[in-house]
Amino acid sequence: MDLLEYQGKQLFARHGIPVPSGKPAATVEAAVAAADEIGYPCVVKAQVLIGGRGKAGGVKLAKDRAEATQYATDILGMDIKGFTVHEVWIEGASEIAEEYYASIVFDRAAKAPLVMLSTQGGMDIEEVAEKTPEALARLHVDPLLGFQDFHGRKLAFAAGIPADLIRPVGAMLTKLYATFVAEEAMLIEVNPLIITPAREVVALDAKVTLDGNSLYRHPDNAALRDPSAEDPQEQMAHERGLTYVKLDGDIGILGNGAGLVMSTLDVVGLHGGEAANFLDAGGGSKSDAIVSAVEVILSDPKVRAVLFNIFGGITRCDEVAKGLIEAYGVIQPTVPFVVRLDGTNDVEGRKLLADANLPNVATATTMNEAAEKVVELAKTGVPA
Ligand code: GDP
Ligand code: MN
C-alpha cells in the first residue's frame, strides 16, 4: 500500500525523523486557513500517489496569502499522470542548501534490504542512476544484523558527503531503516533529503510503500488507505477481495492461481500481446466470483479482448463457465473472450459454453492456442 507524502511524513515524525510541519487540506478555504496558520512563505503540495509532482506543477512556493489561494485553486482538482488531486499538503517553506537522495528497498535478488544514498537529489534520480551510477552509493544490509552506525558512515563516505555531515546523515539513515523495519515497509524513498543552511538534515519528501500483507499487524497504518487516491480498477478489485494488478496493455487476463496468471502473462507476451491486468480469481472460485471479476476487468476501458485461463483443480471449470454465462447476462460485454478450460469438469464447462452460444466467445484447448487467439483478437477483433 502506497502512502501519500504527508502520511509518510507523519509516519517519519513518529520515528523521530525531522520533517517540516504542515497540514492537509481538501478545499481552497482549508488550504488558505492552513497557510495562514503555518505562516508565509509556505509550500502547496499536491497529494497524489505518483512521483514527479514538482515537474507537473504540483509543488509551489507561496510567498503570501494571494499566492497560496492561487496555487491551492490551481492544484486542487489538477490531473497528474492520470491521478486527480483531492488533497494538498501545506507546509512551512524550508531553506535548502543541498538536496540529497536516500532510499531503502528490498533487493529480492540479494535477499536483503538495499540502502541507497546520493548527493544528487532533487527531481530525477533515475537519470542519476543511469548516467552517473557511481554517484549513487549502495549498501546491502544483513537483515539479522540490522543497520549499524558504520553502515551509515560507509554509505556517507561512498556518496561523497562532506565531513561534517557524515554523522548526521548516517543517523538519518539509521532512523529511516528503523522505520522501514518497524512499519514493515517495502520502500522508503526521500527525495530530496535536504541539508538546511544551518546544516540540519530534513526529509522534504516521503514516498513510503507498506507491505499490504502486514497491515493486519498495523491497524493505524491500515486506516491510512485512501480509496479515492487509488486507481479505480484496483480499488474496485480490492473491495471485492480480488487479487488484481493493473498493467499497461490491452488484454484482460483472468486465471486461477498466481503462478498460472504469471505464466499466462508470459505466453501472451510471447505472442506479441500486452496484458491489461493481472487477476487471480483464486482457488475454488464460484460463479459469482467470476461475474465480479469480469466486471472489474471490463471496467478498464483499455481492454480490447479477454483471456480466461483456468486450470481446474479445486476450481471447477463448469463453475467458471457458469460465471462467464452469468456475466454475459449481467453486463453484455462488447469485447471478445477466449476461454481455455482444462482440468476438473472441463468437459462440462466447455459443453455449458457451447450450449450457451455466447456471442464473441472462443474456446481453446491449450494455453498457447488461447494466447495466440486473444492477441489476434485484441489487434483485429477477428480470431486467428
Ligand atoms: P516531487 O516532484 O513529487 O518529487 O515533489 P518534492 O516534494 O520532491 O518537491 C520537488 C522539489 O520542489 C524539491 O526537490 C525542491 O526543490 C522543491 N521544494 C519542495 N519543498 C520546498 C520548500 O519547502 N522550499 C523550497 N525552496 N523548495 C521546495
Ligand atoms: Mn520528490
Automatic annotation (TrEMBL):
The UniProt record lists the keyword Lyase: no
Binding residue positions for ATP: K45, G52, R53, G54, E91, S94, E99
Residue stretches making up the ATP-grasp domain: 9-224
Gene: sucC
Cofactor note: Binds 1 Mg(2+) ion per subunit.
Protein name: Succinate--CoA ligase [ADP-forming] subunit beta
Pfam family, one: ATP-grasp_2
Keyword vocabulary terms for this entry: ATP-binding, Ligase, Magnesium, Metal-binding, Nucleotide-binding, Tricarboxylic acid cycle
Reactions that this protein is recorded to catalyse: GTP + succinate + CoA = succinyl-CoA + GDP + phosphate; succinate + ATP + CoA = succinyl-CoA + ADP + phosphate
First-tier enzyme category under EC: ligase
Sites where the protein binds substrate: N256, G313, I314, T315
